[in-house]
Write a structure and sequence with these properties.
Distance between the termini: 44 Å
Number of helices: 5
Order of helices and strands: EEEEEEEHEHEEHEEEEEEHEHEEEE
Pfam family, one: YQBQ
Domain YqbQ/XkdQ: 23-311
Organism: Anaeromicropila herbilytica
Structural class: mainly beta
Strand content: over 45%
Radius of gyration: 22 Å
Oligomer: single chain
Shape: globular
Protein name: YqbQ/XkdQ domain-containing protein
CATH architecture of the largest domain: Roll
Number of strands: 21
CATH superfamily of the largest domain: Baseplate protein-like domain - beta roll fold
Helix content: 10-25%
Protein backbone atom coordinates (compact mmCIF):
# COMPACT_ATOMS: atom_id res chain seq x y z
CA UNK A 1 0.00 0.00 0.00
CA UNK A 2 1.23 3.47 -0.87
CA UNK A 3 -0.22 6.96 -0.36
CA UNK A 4 0.78 9.90 -2.55
CA UNK A 5 -0.12 13.52 -1.80
CA UNK A 6 -0.57 16.02 -4.61
CA UNK A 7 -1.06 19.65 -3.69
CA UNK A 8 -3.70 21.69 -5.52
CA UNK A 9 -2.35 23.06 -8.82
CA UNK A 10 0.92 21.14 -8.34
CA UNK A 11 1.83 18.26 -10.64
CA UNK A 12 4.44 16.89 -8.22
CA UNK A 13 3.41 13.97 -5.98
CA UNK A 14 4.84 13.34 -2.51
CA UNK A 15 5.05 9.87 -0.96
CA UNK A 16 3.64 10.22 2.59
CA UNK A 17 3.17 6.50 3.33
CA UNK A 18 5.57 6.61 6.29
CA UNK A 19 3.36 9.18 8.07
CA UNK A 20 0.17 7.11 7.72
CA UNK A 21 -1.34 5.17 10.64
CA UNK A 22 -4.60 3.93 9.05
CA UNK A 23 -6.14 3.89 5.56
CA UNK A 24 -9.78 3.09 4.82
CA UNK A 25 -10.98 2.70 1.22
CA UNK A 26 -14.66 1.96 0.64
CA UNK A 27 -17.51 1.93 -1.85
CA UNK A 28 -21.07 0.88 -2.64
CA UNK A 29 -22.75 -0.58 -5.71
CA UNK A 30 -25.50 2.06 -5.48
CA UNK A 31 -23.28 5.06 -4.74
CA UNK A 32 -20.68 4.93 -7.56
CA UNK A 33 -18.27 7.37 -5.88
CA UNK A 34 -15.64 5.61 -3.77
CA UNK A 35 -14.18 7.20 -0.65
CA UNK A 36 -10.78 7.33 1.04
CA UNK A 37 -9.94 8.11 4.66
CA UNK A 38 -6.30 8.59 5.62
CA UNK A 39 -5.15 9.05 9.21
CA UNK A 40 -1.82 10.88 9.48
CA UNK A 41 0.34 11.01 12.59
CA UNK A 42 0.14 14.45 14.21
CA UNK A 43 1.79 15.88 17.32
CA UNK A 44 2.56 19.63 17.48
CA UNK A 45 4.75 19.03 20.54
CA UNK A 46 6.90 16.35 18.89
CA UNK A 47 9.35 17.97 16.47
CA UNK A 48 10.16 14.54 15.01
CA UNK A 49 6.66 14.27 13.50
CA UNK A 50 6.25 16.45 10.44
CA UNK A 51 3.06 18.51 10.06
CA UNK A 52 2.02 17.80 6.47
CA UNK A 53 -0.77 20.41 6.42
CA UNK A 54 -2.81 18.70 3.71
CA UNK A 55 -5.54 21.10 2.56
CA UNK A 56 -9.03 20.88 1.10
CA UNK A 57 -8.83 20.31 -2.64
CA UNK A 58 -5.48 18.51 -2.46
CA UNK A 59 -5.32 14.99 -3.91
CA UNK A 60 -4.62 11.76 -2.00
CA UNK A 61 -3.83 8.78 -4.22
CA UNK A 62 -3.97 5.21 -2.91
CA UNK A 63 -2.10 2.54 -4.85
CA UNK A 64 -1.13 -1.08 -4.29
CA UNK A 65 1.53 -2.97 -6.24
CA UNK A 66 1.75 -0.05 -8.66
CA UNK A 67 -1.99 -0.01 -9.40
CA UNK A 68 -3.95 3.16 -8.56
CA UNK A 69 -6.98 2.19 -6.47
CA UNK A 70 -8.40 5.69 -6.00
CA UNK A 71 -7.41 9.23 -6.89
CA UNK A 72 -9.38 11.29 -4.39
CA UNK A 73 -9.85 14.96 -3.60
CA UNK A 74 -9.77 15.95 0.08
CA UNK A 75 -13.18 17.16 1.30
CA UNK A 76 -12.64 17.29 5.07
CA UNK A 77 -10.12 16.82 7.85
CA UNK A 78 -10.50 16.04 11.54
CA UNK A 79 -7.81 16.43 14.19
CA UNK A 80 -7.97 13.99 17.13
CA UNK A 81 -5.77 15.00 20.04
CA UNK A 82 -6.23 11.76 22.02
CA UNK A 83 -5.07 9.57 19.15
CA UNK A 84 -2.50 12.03 17.85
CA UNK A 85 -3.78 11.91 14.28
CA UNK A 86 -5.42 14.01 11.60
CA UNK A 87 -7.90 12.11 9.44
CA UNK A 88 -8.39 13.35 5.88
CA UNK A 89 -11.51 12.23 4.03
CA UNK A 90 -11.93 12.38 0.27
CA UNK A 91 -13.82 11.02 -2.71
CA UNK A 92 -13.02 10.19 -6.30
CA UNK A 93 -14.21 12.59 -9.00
CA UNK A 94 -17.55 10.82 -9.45
CA UNK A 95 -18.57 12.74 -6.33
CA UNK A 96 -18.82 15.86 -8.52
CA UNK A 97 -21.60 14.10 -10.42
CA UNK A 98 -23.36 12.98 -7.24
CA UNK A 99 -23.30 16.52 -5.85
CA UNK A 100 -24.35 18.24 -9.10
CA UNK A 101 -27.89 18.65 -10.47
CA UNK A 102 -28.90 19.52 -14.01
CA UNK A 103 -31.81 19.84 -16.42
CA UNK A 104 -31.63 18.29 -19.88
CA UNK A 105 -33.81 17.31 -22.81
CA UNK A 106 -32.22 14.36 -24.60
CA UNK A 107 -33.65 13.39 -28.00
CA UNK A 108 -32.79 10.64 -30.49
CA UNK A 109 -29.76 9.39 -28.61
CA UNK A 110 -28.40 6.40 -26.67
CA UNK A 111 -27.35 5.84 -23.02
CA UNK A 112 -23.67 5.89 -23.95
CA UNK A 113 -24.02 9.19 -25.81
CA UNK A 114 -25.80 10.69 -22.81
CA UNK A 115 -22.89 9.73 -20.55
CA UNK A 116 -20.35 11.23 -22.96
CA UNK A 117 -22.37 14.47 -23.05
CA UNK A 118 -22.65 14.66 -19.25
CA UNK A 119 -18.96 14.00 -18.70
CA UNK A 120 -18.01 16.62 -21.27
CA UNK A 121 -20.25 19.21 -19.59
CA UNK A 122 -18.82 18.45 -16.13
CA UNK A 123 -15.21 18.08 -17.30
CA UNK A 124 -14.85 14.41 -16.34
CA UNK A 125 -12.62 12.25 -18.52
CA UNK A 126 -14.09 8.98 -19.77
CA UNK A 127 -12.69 5.51 -20.22
CA UNK A 128 -14.65 2.67 -21.81
CA UNK A 129 -18.38 3.38 -21.83
CA UNK A 130 -20.45 0.21 -22.33
CA UNK A 131 -22.10 0.37 -25.77
CA UNK A 132 -25.80 -0.56 -25.73
CA UNK A 133 -27.07 0.92 -29.02
CA UNK A 134 -30.48 1.18 -27.31
CA UNK A 135 -32.38 4.10 -28.88
CA UNK A 136 -33.78 6.77 -26.59
CA UNK A 137 -36.36 8.85 -28.42
CA UNK A 138 -36.70 11.34 -25.57
CA UNK A 139 -35.51 11.61 -21.99
CA UNK A 140 -36.61 14.66 -20.00
CA UNK A 141 -34.56 15.56 -16.93
CA UNK A 142 -35.53 18.35 -14.56
CA UNK A 143 -33.16 19.16 -11.71
CA UNK A 144 -31.83 15.65 -11.12
CA UNK A 145 -28.32 14.70 -10.04
CA UNK A 146 -25.94 13.42 -12.68
CA UNK A 147 -25.62 9.92 -11.25
CA UNK A 148 -29.40 9.50 -11.43
CA UNK A 149 -29.41 10.76 -15.03
CA UNK A 150 -26.79 8.18 -16.01
CA UNK A 151 -28.75 5.42 -14.30
CA UNK A 152 -32.05 6.52 -15.88
CA UNK A 153 -30.43 6.30 -19.30
CA UNK A 154 -28.93 2.88 -18.62
CA UNK A 155 -32.15 1.71 -16.96
CA UNK A 156 -33.71 2.10 -20.42
CA UNK A 157 -31.01 -0.24 -21.75
CA UNK A 158 -31.57 -2.69 -18.89
CA UNK A 159 -35.31 -2.83 -19.58
CA UNK A 160 -34.66 -3.39 -23.27
CA UNK A 161 -31.84 -5.95 -23.01
CA UNK A 162 -31.89 -7.31 -19.45
CA UNK A 163 -28.19 -6.46 -19.00
CA UNK A 164 -27.18 -4.74 -15.75
CA UNK A 165 -24.85 -1.74 -15.80
CA UNK A 166 -23.00 0.49 -13.34
CA UNK A 167 -20.72 3.53 -13.56
CA UNK A 168 -17.36 3.49 -11.79
CA UNK A 169 -14.24 5.65 -11.56
CA UNK A 170 -10.83 4.16 -12.31
CA UNK A 171 -8.21 6.79 -11.54
CA UNK A 172 -9.66 10.02 -12.89
CA UNK A 173 -11.73 8.44 -15.69
CA UNK A 174 -15.37 7.40 -15.61
CA UNK A 175 -16.30 4.00 -17.02
CA UNK A 176 -19.65 2.30 -17.47
CA UNK A 177 -19.31 -1.46 -17.09
CA UNK A 178 -21.53 -4.51 -16.89
CA UNK A 179 -22.38 -5.04 -13.24
CA UNK A 180 -21.64 -8.40 -11.67
CA UNK A 181 -18.46 -9.47 -13.49
CA UNK A 182 -16.65 -12.19 -11.57
CA UNK A 183 -13.28 -11.46 -9.99
CA UNK A 184 -10.72 -13.61 -11.78
CA UNK A 185 -8.41 -16.12 -10.09
CA UNK A 186 -9.66 -15.42 -6.55
CA UNK A 187 -12.10 -16.91 -4.07
CA UNK A 188 -13.00 -16.47 -0.41
CA UNK A 189 -12.86 -19.48 1.91
CA UNK A 190 -12.97 -20.05 5.66
CA UNK A 191 -9.89 -22.26 5.25
CA UNK A 192 -7.90 -19.52 3.46
CA UNK A 193 -8.89 -15.94 4.16
CA UNK A 194 -12.33 -15.54 5.81
CA UNK A 195 -12.08 -14.54 9.48
CA UNK A 196 -15.83 -14.19 10.23
CA UNK A 197 -19.17 -14.33 8.39
CA UNK A 198 -22.95 -13.87 8.79
CA UNK A 199 -26.14 -14.68 6.83
CA UNK A 200 -29.74 -13.34 6.89
CA UNK A 201 -33.06 -13.65 4.97
CA UNK A 202 -35.92 -11.16 4.47
CA UNK A 203 -39.09 -10.62 2.39
CA UNK A 204 -39.42 -6.90 3.21
CA UNK A 205 -38.84 -5.84 -0.42
CA UNK A 206 -40.62 -8.68 -2.21
CA UNK A 207 -42.58 -8.03 -5.44
CA UNK A 208 -44.28 -11.09 -6.93
CA UNK A 209 -46.83 -9.56 -9.32
CA UNK A 210 -46.51 -6.77 -11.88
CA UNK A 211 -49.44 -5.46 -13.92
CA UNK A 212 -48.71 -3.87 -17.29
CA UNK A 213 -50.60 -0.74 -18.38
CA UNK A 214 -50.59 1.55 -21.41
CA UNK A 215 -50.51 5.34 -21.11
CA UNK A 216 -54.33 5.35 -20.90
CA UNK A 217 -54.18 3.29 -17.69
CA UNK A 218 -55.61 0.24 -19.50
CA UNK A 219 -54.19 -3.09 -18.34
CA UNK A 220 -52.41 -4.92 -21.14
CA UNK A 221 -50.77 -7.79 -19.31
CA UNK A 222 -49.42 -9.19 -16.07
CA UNK A 223 -46.43 -11.21 -14.89
CA UNK A 224 -46.63 -13.25 -11.70
CA UNK A 225 -44.29 -15.34 -9.58
CA UNK A 226 -46.90 -17.95 -8.70
CA UNK A 227 -44.85 -19.87 -6.13
CA UNK A 228 -44.15 -16.69 -4.20
CA UNK A 229 -47.81 -15.59 -4.33
CA UNK A 230 -48.96 -18.93 -2.93
CA UNK A 231 -46.41 -18.77 -0.14
CA UNK A 232 -46.53 -15.09 0.88
CA UNK A 233 -49.61 -13.55 -0.76
CA UNK A 234 -49.65 -10.76 -3.36
CA UNK A 235 -47.07 -7.95 -3.32
CA UNK A 236 -47.84 -5.96 -6.47
CA UNK A 237 -46.24 -3.28 -8.62
CA UNK A 238 -47.32 -1.70 -11.92
CA UNK A 239 -45.46 -0.95 -15.13
CA UNK A 240 -46.39 1.55 -17.84
CA UNK A 241 -45.43 0.58 -21.41
CA UNK A 242 -42.50 2.56 -22.86
CA UNK A 243 -41.53 3.05 -26.51
CA UNK A 244 -38.75 0.71 -27.62
CA UNK A 245 -38.98 -1.45 -24.48
CA UNK A 246 -40.34 -4.99 -24.30
CA UNK A 247 -43.04 -4.59 -21.66
CA UNK A 248 -43.01 -8.23 -20.51
CA UNK A 249 -39.22 -8.21 -20.09
CA UNK A 250 -39.38 -4.92 -18.21
CA UNK A 251 -42.14 -6.20 -15.92
CA UNK A 252 -40.27 -9.44 -15.19
CA UNK A 253 -37.21 -7.39 -14.28
CA UNK A 254 -39.31 -5.66 -11.59
CA UNK A 255 -40.05 -8.91 -9.76
CA UNK A 256 -38.15 -9.20 -6.48
CA UNK A 257 -37.69 -12.52 -4.71
CA UNK A 258 -36.84 -13.19 -1.08
CA UNK A 259 -33.83 -11.09 -0.12
CA UNK A 260 -30.87 -13.01 1.20
CA UNK A 261 -27.80 -11.16 2.40
CA UNK A 262 -24.46 -12.16 3.82
CA UNK A 263 -21.32 -10.46 5.03
CA UNK A 264 -17.74 -11.55 5.52
CA UNK A 265 -14.63 -10.24 7.18
CA UNK A 266 -11.50 -11.40 5.43
CA UNK A 267 -7.88 -10.75 4.61
CA UNK A 268 -7.79 -7.94 2.08
CA UNK A 269 -7.79 -8.27 -1.69
CA UNK A 270 -8.03 -5.07 -3.75
CA UNK A 271 -10.12 -6.65 -6.52
CA UNK A 272 -13.02 -7.17 -4.10
CA UNK A 273 -15.00 -3.99 -4.71
CA UNK A 274 -18.70 -3.26 -5.02
CA UNK A 275 -20.38 -4.25 -8.26
CA UNK A 276 -18.24 -7.33 -8.82
CA UNK A 277 -18.92 -11.00 -8.03
CA UNK A 278 -16.78 -13.38 -6.00
CA UNK A 279 -16.89 -17.13 -5.26
CA UNK A 280 -17.28 -17.95 -1.56
CA UNK A 281 -17.02 -21.21 0.35
CA UNK A 282 -17.78 -20.92 4.07
CA UNK A 283 -18.59 -24.05 6.09
CA UNK A 284 -19.82 -22.09 9.14
CA UNK A 285 -22.74 -20.31 7.41
CA UNK A 286 -23.11 -22.83 4.60
CA UNK A 287 -22.39 -20.19 1.98
CA UNK A 288 -21.00 -21.83 -1.12
CA UNK A 289 -21.68 -20.06 -4.40
CA UNK A 290 -21.10 -16.90 -6.36
CA UNK A 291 -22.03 -13.70 -4.51
CA UNK A 292 -22.24 -10.06 -5.57
CA UNK A 293 -20.47 -7.39 -3.54
CA UNK A 294 -22.86 -4.57 -2.60
CA UNK A 295 -20.67 -2.67 -0.10
CA UNK A 296 -16.97 -2.97 0.67
CA UNK A 297 -14.57 -1.48 3.21
CA UNK A 298 -10.83 -2.07 2.97
CA UNK A 299 -8.56 -1.17 5.90
CA UNK A 300 -4.79 -0.97 6.24
CA UNK A 301 -3.65 -0.55 9.84
CA UNK A 302 -0.74 -1.72 11.96
CA UNK A 303 0.83 -3.64 9.12
CA UNK A 304 -2.30 -5.67 8.33
CA UNK A 305 -4.77 -5.39 5.46
CA UNK A 306 -8.36 -6.55 5.99
CA UNK A 307 -11.71 -6.07 4.27
CA UNK A 308 -15.37 -6.17 5.17
CA UNK A 309 -17.82 -7.16 2.40
CA UNK A 310 -21.62 -6.98 2.33
CA UNK A 311 -22.87 -9.55 -0.18
CA UNK A 312 -26.03 -10.11 -2.21
CA UNK A 313 -27.37 -13.43 -3.50
CA UNK A 314 -28.63 -11.73 -6.66
CA UNK A 315 -27.03 -9.29 -9.08
CA UNK A 316 -29.32 -6.24 -8.87
CA UNK A 317 -28.94 -3.03 -10.83
CA UNK A 318 -29.75 0.37 -9.31
CA UNK A 319 -32.71 0.93 -11.65
CA UNK A 320 -33.88 4.55 -11.70
CA UNK A 321 -37.51 5.10 -12.62
CA UNK A 322 -38.54 8.20 -14.54
CA UNK A 323 -41.14 10.55 -13.08
Amino acid sequence: MRILWQKHNDKKKYDITEFISTVTWSGSATQASRSLQVSVLYSPLDKNIQDLNIKMGDRLILSDDGKVLINSMVYSRERTSEQGTITYSGYDDFNHLLKSNATYVFKKTTPENIVEKLCKDFQIDTGDIEKTKVPIAKLLIEGDNIYNIIMKAYSRAYKAKGIKYMPIMYGTKLYVIRKGQKIKDFNLSDTLNITSSSYSESIDSIINKVKIYNDKKEQKGVVTEETSVKKYGIFQESYTIEDGVNSVTAAKNMLVKEEKTASVEALGHTSCISGYAVDISDSITGLKKEFWIENDTHTWSGGTYTMSLELAFKNVMDVQEES
